[in-house]
Amino acid sequence: MGFKCPERKGVADFLQEVTSRKDQEQYWAQKDKPYTFVTVKKFAEAFQSFHVGRKLGDELATQFDKAKSHPAASTTRKYGVKKAELVKACLSREFLLINSNSFVYIFKFIQLTIMAMIVMTTFLQTDMHRNSVTDIHDRCKPSYFLEAKEAQ
After folding, report:
1. What is the pLDDT of residue 150?
2. CB atoms within 10 A of CB 18
3. Residue 123 CB contacts under 8 Å (≥ 6 apart), including other chains
4. C-beta neighbour count of 24 within 10 angstroms
5. pLDDT beneath 50: ranges in the chain
6. Which of 49, 19, 12, 50 is nearest to 37 (CA)?
């Protein structure tokens, strides 16, 4: 094809860069011929016509014989890890994160508890009558006022 892999580069890095339009020219090795861009499709066709590509294609075309392989060689489940193991791993990770920031979590929990107590006792009216519809309206007015104020 006309390209040469430098000694300092690995094959995978070279193949990744030689298919790039901007990097391909620096690997051109045929000085007597002018450089022309070679597309990825041409690289793929050249590999498939090469003896290594043909051998790989033949190996992939043959069916996998389960009788010749070891029983533990292939998986029998859809996923490699069970759901219970995933949940256990996620919970242990979250527990570690909570322990590292335990002061923040404790502070937020206490703050939330105090705010809940304040909100619960704000409209606590034990001596109010509940005999008619007007009494119910009187009981609901403060919460309506808060919702109307938040909507603005």
Report:
1. 67
2. 21
3. 139, 142, 143
4. 17
5. none
6. 19
